[in-house]
Amino acid sequence: MVLGLAISHVLWGTTEASFASWICGEADEVTTAIMTQIRIPRVLTAMGAGAGLGVCGLLLQTWFGNPLAGPSVLGISSGAGMGVALVVLAGFAGGWVATASAAVLGSMLVLFGILLVAKRFRGMTTLLIFGLMLNYVLGALMTILQAEAKQDALQQFVFWGMGTFGQNTLFLAASLIVLVVLVVAKAWHLRGALDAWTLGGITARSMGVSDKAVRWNLLLLTGLTTGAVTAICGPVAFLGLATPHVVRSFTGRRTHGFLIPMTALCGAALALLADWGVKGFGGGIDGWPLNAVLSLLGGPMVIWVLIKRGWTPE
Amino acid sequence: MNHPNYPSLALNKATIGYRGASPLLREISFAWEAGGIHLLLGRNGAGKSTLIRTLAGLMDPMAGDVLIAEESILSLSSKERAKRMAYVHSTPPRTSELKVGEVLQLLGGEVAEARSVLEDFGEESWWDRPLSTLSDGEAQRVMFARCILQRTDWILLDEPTAFLDALARKRFWNQVEHAAQLGRGILVATHDFMEITDRMIASVTMVSSQGLKKLDPSQDPASWTAEME
Questions:
Q1: For residue A169, what pLDDT is reported?
Q2: B98 and A255: CB-CB below 8 Å?
Q3: Minimal Cβ distance to B78: which of A65, A210, A252
Q4: Quick check: is B223 in a domain?
Q5: Which chain B residue lies closest to A211 (C-alpha atoms)?
């Protein structure tokens, strides 16, 4: 229901264009162009990004047993951003394939690093501080790359860095949706193992859950999704972290068989709502930067989670 | 208390410890016959937890083998291994928000069976309660109930009562004794052996840096403590 509402909302935009007339095949060329080249790719991109990042956030929170884990908090988005920065700023050619591959590789490398050292961390604070430091380091590297970059590449990168759902082709948007549907399906397939994992890694293993299999899937699913979303939309903050909490706040059910599809739906809806914030405010053609809107929503959200749970760095 | 139909659990020249550290136990060959409660005693740091984890297949021995019914557990897949032995960790899960009923049905359990085990425990009312709202003692009993539902020949317990108060310990051991009466082999590393009815104790093993040593289960528990020195 939330989803249907949000979709219909976004189908109305700043320029007057009738969705109904387009559907009925009575639209003029301008309307058709607005639909197929702007609005539909934008809606699909937002939904794919929201659903994908939400489910990644849920997977990370379950794996690390940490309610504040998420792709951006842990530096996985930064890893993807670093990949994009290397391609765009250092001037490697190759178009979106190169950018997306570099982003996926970057996010996987960061997550791989986190998984390697996470065993040494006791408690949720350490992991978050690790992610924070990673964000600083990668941010610094990106700043250096920017300082060294050529003017037009720099412009492209800065624009990308603000984040938007609105700069995507129909083909890439549809590909993102396909990817996210596959990721959500695979995550759902792991629901039993993820439920068991909430009892603690060692207990889950004693129940026959293969930690290796779950870990590799986590790396693959989160790396692919975060990489693809970051390459397409820019660094999208907080959606991964916040969405599972929004779902948990309106239901008492905690099985992953329920949480995974709900988080995907809710993430899609949240992304569409945030995009309303982007389009609805601001004087410019592009409205407010997506990342600013998401951080305004997401920051308080984290604080709310901390207050609600009590800060027990156990 | 010998159950010929149940498989024994054995170490075959096993060296036990964490990779990168010096071994806690070297080239141990030892066997436990199934059925009844088998105690694993020893001082803190003697290697009881490491031994239990190795026997449960949750960590590999540095050398040698672990055998269940004369089959190497190292050759079993995680799923196959989980059909042979269950495990309760010393720390109860504190963050899982799954409901007790959901925990008991994890990875393919049946509702009716799960309900009946909870009934046996006299705690039907827990069914819809999130695990995170239970006390440590209650959560540990749920974890033990879950082990029973795993239908294994062996249940391995790693200081399961370490965080429980006296009453919670008593309730926990009652359940363990009940499971042992039904023929499960239970191997437990613990300091709280005084609360276990002595007729249920099938064997007592002392773990120390010198290796494993069988003690007489019919003897006064005070004499076991004396062995630690």
A1: 86
A2: yes
A3: A210
A4: yes
A5: B78
